[in-house]
Each structure stands twice: as C-alpha cells, then as structure tokens.
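User: quick one
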Amino acid sequence: MNQRFWTGRRRDNLAGYLFIAPQLAGSILFVFVPLALVVWYSLHEWNVLAGTFEFTGGANYEQLASDPRLPGVLAATGLFSAGLVVLNLTLALLLAVLLNQKLRGTIFFRTVFFSPVVVSLVAWTIVWGFLLQDNGGINGVLSWLGIAGPNWLRGEGTAMISVIVVQVVKNVGLNMILFLAALQGVPANLYEAARMDGASRWRQFRSITVPMISPTILLTSIITVVGSLQVFAQIAVLTQGGPGTSTTVLVYYLYQQAFQFHHFGYGATLSVLLFAIVLTLTVVQWQMRKRWVFHES
Amino acid sequence: MSLRAKTAMYGLLCVLAIPFIFPTWWMVTSSVKPVSDIFAFPPSIIPSAISFDAYRDVFTLQPFAQQYWNSMYIAIVVTIGTLCVASMAGYAFARIKFPGANALFLVILTGLLIPSEVTIVPLFQMFNSWGLIDTHWPLIWVPIFGAPSVLATFIMRQFFLALPNELEEAARMDGLGRFAMFRQIALPLARPALGAVAIFTFLHSWNLYLEPIVFLSSSEKFTLPQALTQFVDAYGGPMWNIQLSAASLTAIPVLVVFVIAQRQFIEGLAHTGLKG
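Assistant: Done. Structure below.
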C-alpha cells in the first residue's frame, strides 16, 4: 500500500515542495507578512515612546497628503533616481563600448571601473565625503587649475549632484559588465553588412547595437531604478538629507520619521508610498518592454 | 583602428578612470598622513611623512577587531545560507514539475519588489517582540530569506533551466533520488552560478547600513559600516584620519581579493543568469 502510494510522480512532487519550502516559508515570514503589517500599521497612530497604538483609519494618509515636506522629499527622490539612472546607464554603456574595442589593456581598465563595486559602501562614501569637503581633495585639485570649487555638500544643487556622482561611480561597473556581455553577444556579421551598406559608426550603434542589447538595457534599467529608490547610506553619511531637505529622499525621510521621531504609524505610511512607487515604476518599465525591446531571448 | 583613434581612446579611458582610482589612493595615503597634513594646502598627492597613529586609534576607540569579525561572520553565514536556500528552490523551479510551481515562483519573485527598506518598520517590531533587537539574527535571517535571496533563486533557476535533460535521465536509471540528483549532478555543474551568487550575496551583506543602525545599539555588536561612522569627536564631527584608516582596513582586503581573482569575479557575474 505504502509502496503504491509513493509513486515516482508523488515522490517528485513532494521533493519539489520540500526544496522550495525554506524559500517559501522565509518569504512569507520576512517579506509578505511584513508587507501586510506595513499596510495595517499605516492605519494606526503609533507612537513608540508614548506607547500608543490606535486605529485611525485614513488619518495617516491625510497627514501624508498635507505633509508640507513631502513634495520636497518626492522631488529629491525623483531627481536622485532620474539623475542616477540616466548617468549610470549612459556611462555604463559608454564604458562597455570602449572596453569592447580591440585594444590592449582593456582587462586592466575593466578591473579599475569595476573595483568600487567591491569597496564597502560606507567606506567609499566616507572617502568621497572627505574629498568633497570645502578644503578637501577635489577643491584642492581644482585650485591647482585656478578654479575656486564650491562647498559641494553644503549647496543645494551641488549636494544632490555629489550624492548622484558618488553612487554612480560606486556601482556603474556592475551595469558595465552586463552591457559588455551583451555587446559581445551581438553577431559580428550584422556590423559587416551595415558597413557594406555604408552605415556610419553612430548609425551602426543606433540601428544594430541598441536594438540587439535592448533586453539588457531593460533589465539594467529596472535593477537601477529599484536600487536608486533604496539609497540610504550615502545620504545618511554625506548630507543627512541636507542642506534643508534638498537630499532627503523617501527612504531617509521614512527612517527619520520611524526611527528618529518614533512615528511608526506615519513611517509605515511612507513605506506603503515607497512600495507603491517601486511597483508602479517596475510595471511601467515592464509594459514599455513591448514597445521598444527588440527581441526576448 | 588608426593610431589617432587609439590614442584618443586611451586618453578617454585614462580620464574616466580617475574618479574610480583616485578616491582609494586618497583614502590610503591620507590615512597615513600626520593629522596636520590631511587638509594641507596645496594637497600632497604623496604623503611627506608617514604616521600609523590613526590605525592604533581605530582599535582603541572602538572594539574594531570584534566589529570586523561581526561583519565577516555575518556575511559568510548569509552567503552560505542563501546558497543553500536559493540553489534548492532554483533547482526545484527549474527541474521538477510539481503542481503550482509556476504560480509559486511568481509569488516568490514579487519579493524582489519588496526590499527591506519597505518593511523595515514591521521587521523591527517583529524582531523586537521576539527579543532579538541588538542581536545579529535580523541581519542573518532577513537577507537569507528576503528580497536578496529571491534574486539568487532567480539566477539559480535560470542556470538550472539550461542543463540538458539527459544527465537526469541517466541518473534516474541509476536509481538516484531527487536529492542525490541535486547534490551529485546539478550542484557540481552549477559552480559558476553559485560563485556569482556568493559574490553578490557577500557584498550585499557587507554593505548593509540601514539594517544594522536600526537593529543594533551596542558597539561590540556593530558591523563595519556602522562602526566607520562612529569615529567622531566630542562635537560629532568626523575624525577624518581615523575614519580613513578604518575605511582602508575595511576596503583594502576585499579589493586585494578582487584584484587577484578579478577574471572569475567579473566573468562569473557577467555570464550567469542575469542575462536571461
């Protein structure tokens, strides 16, 4: 009886469930239950210090809609993400194209451009914070060239530019090697045919390279957008959200509200907003795939 | 390619390389400059005198060796745990046809869109109610089972999908069970994918900052990223030479390993799963 019940198929099914059980149970406990809780908490007024936890319905969302700092926070988040994604993808593609030429020493440069990826994020940020001081290394070098550099981290525009550049240099190597792998997968005969037809290099890039690597462009842009919305350490170390709130991105604001001001309910509401933004941007990009991604492997 | 084009290309590569190399150079050289020199004007690219005082202070001001160990062992445990969880789940989703596999895979995949920044408030509350605040457990459990391991599962699945069926047919003939097939056949073949997953899992854990500052409060429990920012003077201003020494100690060993193994590092990451 027992022998007959445990047919090969049943045993295989059981094996399947057992194999995924740790991941599934873990996802439920540490991802999906917390996500449900975040929504639940967002409907409550919860002050950890005062020990109050009361159901208030949409009160936190009303506060969200009328929070005078929120437009600035969303603007900073949008500016950071847009600047980061554009600069990161452009630079990654440029570096990948340069390294894809038949040149000696590309392995050396590939190592150089990738190396910040393996440097501890906070160590990297501290060094840049040091370089970007008013009397720091960057302004020192600029003064050699006769330029009086600004106080990078204390000016509203320059602080945002600084955090974007620090983050791009840190992580661009990752997208660079994904692009490089994609470029190496483009069949060489396509370029030969285009050259026969007299297509310029730029035309070849636009009409062959970009369409052929568009699945990778999609993938890297989704990863980079989602990653850009999670930025925290760089802001906390370099600018603490300042000057004013010019670099207070959503995760940093969420951290301040929940863990510095102890407004867990409002912090949870900001988390819901963050999740909604991540979800929307990913869905939009995924939809755009049909429009401009050339083929899917 | 013409000589001119080549020269232009090299020129461009060298200029672009500056922001990638200079910070590390500046970090290490400034960390051994005497305090009076680190903001010297004009800046000295090569230190005039060398002093290791700041390195001594790194270890006297905080239990830095302990913090180094904390970061190291947490990252290693997280890496091993993720490899186990993700390779098993990835294998099952790729090679075993069981009812609901596709739906369950999609459900787990949505975890990628729920980073722990979104769930940090309830995670704090959960670990608080279990009495695990100011322990390393949250830093171990959440990455092994949360969004980072979902990406690992995805990569492992992509890899296992590409394995030829014949291997398993032969193993089945030999009477191997599922677990034996997984361990003796699939896993040894998956070395490149496991390597790539191990690298980015280790780095992810090594870089964590929000989680440790939320979950940990006593300095002997701190991880490196958190410890680096604690070298401040009485006014809360950074003690630059000490921060830079600690940053060098944090960054250089990993950089050395990377430079030695850069080919495996980069090609492993480039050619595994992420492309699909």
